[in-house]
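BUG: 3D viewer hangs when loading the predicted structure for this chain

Environment: internal workstation, default settings.
Expected: structure renders.
Actual: progress bar stalls at 90%.

Input used:
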Amino acid sequence: MVSQGKRTHSCGDLRAADVGTRVRLSGWVDSRRDLGALVFVDLRDRYGITQVAFDEEVADALRATAGSLKSESVIHVTGTVRTRPDGMINRERATGEVEVLAEDLEVLSVAATPPFEMAAEGVSDELRLQYRYLDLRRQRSQRALGLRHKLFLALRNELDRRGFLEIETPILTKATPEGARDYLVPSRVHPGKLFALPQSPQIFKQILMVSGADKYFQIVRCFRDEDLRADRQPEFTQLDLEMSFVDEQIVWDVVSEVVAGAVEAVAPDRKPTLPLPIMTWTEAMERFGTDKPDTRFAVELKTVGQLVKDSEFGVFSGTVKNGGTVRMLAVPGGASFSRKQISGLEDVAKDHGAKGLAWNKVTAVGDGAEGSIVLEGGCSKFLSPAEAAALVAATGAGEGDLLLAVADSFGRSAQALSAVRLAVGKALDLIDTRRLDFLWIIEFPMFDRDEETGQLSPAHHPFCMPKEEYEGQLEQDPAGLLARSYDLVLNGTELGSGSVRIHDSAQQERVFSAIGLPDDEIQARFGFVLEAFRYGTPPHAGFAVGLDRLVMLLAGEESIREVIAFPKTATAACLMTGAPTTVPDDQLAEAGMELSPAARARLARAEGAAPGGASDAGADSALEVSS
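Structure tokens produced before the viewer hung:
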């Protein structure tokens, strides 16, 4: 109940038990119905909606004022709660049994005509983000913000009960490689030098373990200048934590308990069962083609290259001969798919790197023996009866199913067929959207290798501890190393990552060398970390959970923009404020910076293409500065 200022109650409080109570309500005009002698106003705040009645008992002037109210105007009403007449109760509204008979009305703010109705569906994202302050008034947005608040509070309480300290780390810091471009901030007092906004507090939380903090956490803003998608924003919020004297099992247990407790606090009927399942990276890639599998439906990938290595179908046999592989999945009931539907799945495969998508319809299985299985369409005419029987057995396909296959390198076939699997799951409605399938993925490769340059880069970040290695493996065969790293996945979305950290300076320097960092660069970028490790560093491990993604999934949304108060567009622009914008030359000069001629030319071209609007190309160019 709201009981302060102009209000005695919120617009979501009143029930039948309040009949006869004199109340004061404040809020926005959600809707108005003028019936002449009777005016109804639906009054809204973030707690709900209450109907206010202005009938023949109300002064004509007051009723006339109510009849002229504009949508989204802010008003204050005084009146008495009464029961709605029979047949006029709104069962879909918590306050629907009662209404307030108005005695007084004060107009606090008259609203201009909104660019869209609060209850309207199908409003464009651009319009919603331009008028985000209006969009946030909608019940969908209010529910998301309320869920976010309760989840964050529950996480803090769970960690506090386990002895964690909430400690803030710097926002203005040093640029260090963590997998994405940094956002850079020029320094006025150090001309020509720049701070970086943190991609994560990784280095600082490790130094906090050196400092004896033992158990640290914070709910922290992080910044990454990378290409955006539905579950990425240039600035995002994560739950960051670190612990001393622990191994990965303890981290898994603590994070699982904390997340499960927080989910129970906001959605008691959806609390996950502990312990959460664990799967190795290798198993995930084999079964699902991705390290963030959606396990809510049972369709899985099968590796069938050896079954078709001598096939007359050259796409299969040729790929295997050249060192590639063939991956296949069986779509339940997919034999009913039209050629157009299959072409759509082929487009999905191509969009994710495949050259094509082979297919066959299983029209008869018989006893499953060679000769009793009939495949039709696609590449079926090139497959022998023995190959058909082997493929059906390997995939578990049944009569009426559709076999889909990609022949390529392990990585590309996995990526393409994983995307096809998800498309099939959605098309056939195989996914229970109420389920929360949490899953730990462990034993990642230590490094990724660029297929073109051969250059190694950390699969997670360069501070992950490698699993026990053979002597000299880090130098001789680094690509074969596994890391003591782990991800938490929910419904096919990566929620977060963590690892056991390197706590020895010499081993950390060896990892830096393995990814090609020269000694002088190691010292320039990480010298202060290596120096800290010299003064007694406890073994430590940690994790970070992407909270925007967790709220998105709990709220049933498809984009993290829906659960962030003021998000950016897919091109990292704020349509409400117009950011990013240009900065006056004198302000740049004060920071010891100036735009290069090339940057000015690109900015001018961008502004000419989009006069008066925020230009992403211009913003990118503006980062090209010289001291």
